[in-house]
Amino acid sequence: MDLTLLLQSALAGLTNGFVYALIGLGLSVIFRGTRIINAMQGEFALIGGMASYVLLESLGVALPVAALGGAVLGGITGVLVEAVLVRPMRRRGASEESYLLLTLGVAFAISAAVLYFFGRDARLLPGIGGEASALFFDAAIRVHAIWLIVIASAVMALLWLFYHRTVVGLSMMAASVDEQGATTVGINVPLMRTLTFLLGGLVGGLAGVLVSPLITIHYEMGLLLTLKGFAAAILGGLANPFGAVVGGVTLGLVESGAVLYFASGYKDVVSMVILIVIMIVMPNGMLGRGARKGG
Amino acid sequence: MRILRRRFLVGAAGLAAAALSIAAFAQGKEPIKIGAVLSLTGPGAGLGQGERTGILLAEKAINSKGGVRGRPVKVIIEDDGSKPDNAKSKAENLIFNEKVKAIVGGSLTASTGAIAAITNGQGVPQLALTGLGPPIELTYKSVFHLLPPQALNAKAMLEYATKGLKAKKVGVLHDSGYGQLVMNALKAQSDAYGMEYVAIEKFEVGATDVSTQAAKVRAANPDVVFVIATNPIPFRNARQMRITQPIVSAIGSSSYQYVSGMGEFANDIVFPEFLVPEYPMPHQAEFVNLHRITYNVLPKNYEAAGWDAIHVIAKALETTGADASGEVIAQALRTPHRGVLASYNFGATDMTGIELSSYVYSKLVGGKFVRLPFITR
Lengths: 295, 377
Description:
The complex is a heterodimer. By secondary structure, chain A is mostly helical. Chain A has one domain (3-120, 141-212, 221-294): ABC transporter involved in vitamin B12 uptake, BtuC (Orthogonal Bundle). Chain A is 77% helix and 3% strand. Chain A has helices at 3-34, 41-58, 63-91, 96-118, 143-165, 167-177, 179-184, 189-215, 221-236, 241-261, 267-281, 288-294, and strands spanning 133-136, 139-142. A two-stranded antiparallel ribbon of chain A has the order 1-2. In chain A, a hairpin with a 2-residue loop joins β1 (133-136) and β2. Chain B contains 13 helices and 14 strands. Chain B has helices at residues 2-28, 45-64, 84-97, 109-122, 134-137, 150-164, 178-193, 211-219, 233-240, 256-262, 285-295, 301-320, 326-333; strands at residues 32-38, 73-79, 103-105, 126-128, 143-145, 169-175, 196-203, 224-228, 247-248, 269-273, 337-338, 343-344, 360-365, 368-371. In chain B, β11 (337-338) and β12 (343-344) form a beta hairpin. The longest helix of chain B is centred in the first third of the chain and has 27 residues, at 2-28. The interface between A and B is large, with 40 and 33 residues.
């Protein structure tokens, strides 16, 4: 096997893996805090990416400010979804399945709204380092992709600190694990759920800002990202944000490895078979045990 | 000079009044209904939305000229959501409730097949915007298609690669949907063109990264690379993986939507297609101008196909009258028609009659389409 191809495959796998991981992280944050499987996590990315694009191209703000604006709008969307849709459903005793249906419906609505207001055109955010690539033994990786990996790793580390070292993070976990117990000790459970959606939306919006220079922003990107992010989160252990990163990177590497060793038409078949085997051996996900330990 | 100007103004006012009165006369009569089932949402929206604008523009243009035999044309457009089961129910509604004289669509092959099962049974003429393939269509009595079969698209690509670029070895990056259809046609014709496929790499529709596949194509060292996808990412990845060879694509990838997503990599990519609106052929200029004035954007191939579909049907109805049977209208549709997209002959064995010579070749230069002098005969 050509060493360059092998390296190229690994770099592509890592890049894709961290893209999946960023979406999986947000999914996992919301599931960890509310037990809701959020089918609109990719839509947070769509909103974040599109908002950054509008801020940058139409309003002429600087790229870092536009990126921040995209992430914040993702967070605001999360809060709105929780306050306007999830909370009233919870009051009426909605089941877990109905939240899945709700978020799926909102995902389609957001996608349709983006199609209506922004059209079908694919839009491109400039990446960190522009279109420049770095070479490793003749294998290429976008400079932006390196930054995406670094930032995603930093987000993962910050989330770990947040959940383990801050009162708010621990309160969010407590509110999720034992609602009545948390209320008894004075935790504002509804506020914690809102903050969970804020955090999930922020991570999703940031994912959109980081992913858009690689895959372009278009109205259908949300659902595609959600599917891969969901696979990453399940593979790593849905309740564990760090599992989403492990799952995402594993998924990315398995996919690119499958392209390398098999005819590329069989990529999905090969990678899915490997993932099924992993799930049979580790049914709670690769870091599922850690999730239970954390609550 | 002043008298001349006055005469000109009086004449122009008279003509305008006549045109308005014709249009008003047409508006006062019962409209002739034509149905359209398009993919306006879902994966096929990239095709259907463009087809819709072309159809609406054609409706407006025909009615402004007095309609068909003095009656206005009314196009009822339905969205199938890119799903064949929806396409079937929408077509049934158009035929049985709206009593349309003909149906345009679908935008996707599966929808076209679902609609054809109804139109064929009811004898309603159908102008499809994608083909089912001649072996199937020949068994139907009234299904024709406006866009070329994939065999012809493949030929157009191979013509340019072998005659324009003198290439012998080709590497291919294609998606599992549209790209697979074109790839099948390319394989079928490789011997006729003496072309060797040194690498064929496939990826799923909507893939977010195909750089490993692109690296494998590059490693095979082809003379030219075919990239066939309904997504700008493979084009970007090909250049990012330092594929420096010329890229030839297919008509389905030639859209402003994809070019904007290619960013700075929208360069040195050739498309065999029919309409390069920046450099329109004389018979395309009126449509291009009207589209630009009406929508403030330039049209591409699918807009032109929508425009042609309504004009082809209107021309047939002009010949037969709106009260003619579906069979008679279908027979009239078989008359050769010079459209904006191409010259059609729906009586031909491939049910479209588009010749290779109808293709023009465009090349992306700095993100802009430029028409190439290369022609096929």
